[in-house]
Amino acid sequence: MATLEVEALEKRFGGVQAVRGVSFAIRPGEMLALIGPNGAGKSTCFNMLNGQLRPDAGRVRLKGRDITGMAPRRVWRLGVGRTFQITATFGSMTVRENVQMALLSHHRRLMRLWRPVARMDASAADALLARLGMAEQAGRPCGILAYGDLKRVELAIALANDPALLLMDEPTAGMAPQERVGLMALTADIARERGIAVLFTEHDMDVVFSHADRILVLDRGTLIAEGAPAAVRADPRVREVYLGSGNMMSPGQGGH
Amino acid sequence: MRWCGPSGRRADPALLENLVLQALSGLASASSLFLVASGLTVIFGVSRIVNFAHGSLYMLGAYLAWTLVTNLPRGHLGFWGGVLGAALLVGLIGLVVEVLLLRRIYRAPELFQLLATFGVVLIVQDLALLAWGPQDLLGPRAPGLRGSIEILGLRFPLYELFLIGVGPVVLGLLLLLFHRTRWGTLVRAATQDREMVGALGVNQRMLFTSVFFLGSVLAGLGGALQLPRESVNLHMDLSIIAEAFVVVVVGGLGSLSGAALAALLIGELHAFGILVFPKITLVLVFLVMAVVLVVRPHGLLGRPAAAAHGAGAAEPPIGPAPRPLKLAGGAALALALLLPPFAGNYALTVLTDIAIFVLFAASLHLIMGPGGMASFGHAAYFGLGAYGAALAAQWLGASMLGGLVLAPFVAGLFGLLFGWFCVRLSGVYSAMLTLAFAQIAWSVAFQWVELTGGDNGILGVWPDAWAAGKLTYYYLALALCLGSTLLLRRIIHAPFGYALRAQRDSVLRAEAIGIDAFRIRWLGFTLAAAAAGIAGGLFAYGKGSVFPTTMAISRSVDALLMVLLGGVQTLSGPIIGALAFTGLQEQLVRITDLWRLVLGSVIVVLVLFFPQGLAGAARTAWERRHGDT
Amino acid sequence: MLRVTGLSAHYGRAHILDEVALEVAAGEVVVLLGRNGAGKSTTMKAIMGLVPPSAGQVVFDGIPITGRAPFEIARLGLGYVPEERRIFTELTVLENLEVGRRPAPPGMPPWTPARLFALFPSLGAMQDRPGGRMSGGEQQMLTIARTLMGNPRLILLDEPSEGLAPVVVERMAEAIGALKASGLGILLSEQNLHFARGVSDRATIIEKGRIRWSGSIPELLAADAVREQYLSV
Fold first, then answer.
1. Which of A230, B247, B399, C211 is deepest in the core (most CB within 10 A)?
2. Going from the N-terminus, what domains does chain A have, and what CATH number goes with each?
3. Distance (Å) from the C-alpha of residue C42 to the closest C-alpha of chain A?
């Protein structure tokens, strides 16, 4: 069964139709990229999947269960992890504490008033951070972390819930090229290892074409292409509205 | 009473005519209110500073106008020249305040700026007292507008009619200024991103100063134009600032048209409220504000503010207390335990108060620090605890222990109720709603005489015999306050405290990992209210009586001062702040009549030189010496 | 025209810029290449007076500008286009341009909204639209246009291609080419080498706040080891 099924999603803001009739599905372990020009509706789409926005019409199903319009925190409990375009972490906490918060929430222990956090779920958090290569940073406050490291912390937080689906909004924005490839390779490994479906938006075409199993192209709220990287790259309509002549990408990239 | 309609029309007129006049009178009030509120909202729009001192500028406008008008030759030139001259002088005073004080703290946290302007309020109060004396001053009436005209057979003062015209004219001019001139465009741009405006070649310091000048002129004008209407006195500042805040918040922060609409609403509410609901006039305005904010969380015409650019750095993580702090705390505790048997009665009273205020401040800190919410009305829960205990003693004949157990429950219950509304909003709006509920609680205590004794309070709330001695009661208060404060600290280190900080740091991330931010804030608010209730209950038995002043605005402000003086970012901050503030005020009142001037100056100096509060400054110094992280 | 020597800046005790030196001549495009956090934005902010430098000198057109207020620096003819766009979302396109307007130095034809709409045609079609209702690419065009309204002789252009669709990046490259042709000096910061090499004359590589390499674009393209080490592409 598909991890996520999206059916005829619609959203209007005032007079603007931001998303119209978008349908797609993701299988466990699959890396699916959502690309398109600025303002094409990518973020709107994303925000409807995890409940930050309520769609005007259409259905979102997670492992067969209807989650349309559910609040983000309920969607999370059903197994959807999320990273943000502009990183959102708890700046006044250490890296470890950030992950501990996700674990404590997962185990429904947030309302406890007595036992200090320092003694709860610390080793589980450390194990997760080690998997992401962040073990050495565990004790540092998130407020002073480099941007690329924050992206990794976000990934660790998103994974704390053993999600079935990861939603990553521009996961490598603001990272150096080398870091981008590293992070996406790691994500792909973990996704395959644990059977997590990953949906990501991305502006770096090198990242998209080397890590996506499949690509969706959105323009003015509508899906205009869907398929394997090579086919999407060759699609004339995609070239016209989005990719351009291809001068702005590294030469000779294609699939992996 | 300022809000009573025009006098001299007691001739039993028909109802309709009376209503029309009442409406006109409301319009005149609305007009005056708009002048002050427009200045406040303009200044807030650009500088994001909630300027408490705006009421002081209004008061200075009235005093200066009185001085000018009574000294200048009589006639049109003398009067109108005096009024305009006063407005401009107030503009200059505002300009000086901006250049000397506010300009230096634009990057400081919002509440710190508020604290600084509150320091200015205290300073101006004593300076005005020195310059003009404590007696009310009466000004002359406006030349050419002394008489009244007949409307529907009833007499209506010409001057009121003139005021009705002033508001719309000023609104029109301001809208033109902001939307049709380059200066206005620059100001609106600076409202959003002042640094970027500077990088585009605009001297944004001058721009801010000019905005502050304009806002101050409007406040001064508002005050000066009151001269023919009411006497000039030293209470004008705080009475107008509360109303002006209500108008600005109801209208939507930074929105001129919103302020006009809200001034209209509030002005008419006053005019008719006194006819329809004479019993609850004091709360009516705050009830309306509460309703508006519940329905429209950003006021009538306000919009959610975009996050200020480059806004404050992340707060530091909390950790175990460093050794020197533990040693200092231990030493302080030893003193608090060992010294009192040798202290006199007065000292014991002061020490008991300090213990109570430490808990009061610590409870507010839970909301403000980890919770990231501001409360201008925390005294409500202190007072509700006190009244809970006192009412139980008076009506149920409860023992002291019963009263003390009841206090946190009463306060917590109301915290649960009021908090449900307050924690939905953010920033200044939320803070204003807490103020509204505190005012509602205060006026119920004040006006429900049958239950609470009103202004006479509830007397005879004495401790049980075993705790009647001052020393015993001190130890009881110390034990309960210290225990509760330590409990609050424990909670901050526990998952719930972390969840509070999590939603403060990033609601987006909190919700994305299953944290119900609303519920967390709500419970945090309730816990803080209950803790304040314990403090209030102890306060009631310590004094033997309870008065409405236990939950007055000034007590809420005291708590804010304690937390901010100590420092929001550190757990020891509220404790140090409560010690410093209570000690300082207690001493100042004893040694000088000008304690407001001294306290205000101390606050201003602290804000300028210790923007992280006393505990924050100590920590920075300690970290610098020992090498941080 | 712009000469930076020994420019250092600190954040707390951390060195964020360490003796940065670079030069941009009139009508020249110099690209500052480096990873995220390497110090590109900070270099620009320090030049502009938005970050206080702890040491070093910035001379613009023979005038030392170190330690001056940003608005004074802007008035001397140095324009700044920030990375995060920072347009005034409540103001219309025309009002955004008005905020940037400054008189042109003698002998230079002043930028007008009409001239700018010719350079960025998509902006002309939305003159009265509030900045908040524009797409990212349009906003990026508007930030450049807004800075040009100040009639600068040199602009600092911080990562203009970041987050833009490849098609829009191509249009951006054309606009930068036109500006260079008009005699404007440009200090560009970029991570996108493909974009940078098309529009720049010279490149300077920054890493951990320190200048590691400087040379012409052909030299950079030939220096595989340098690219490998600092740019990882």
1. B247
2. 1-28+54-80+208-223+240-249 (no CATH), 81-162 (3.40.50.300)
3. 14
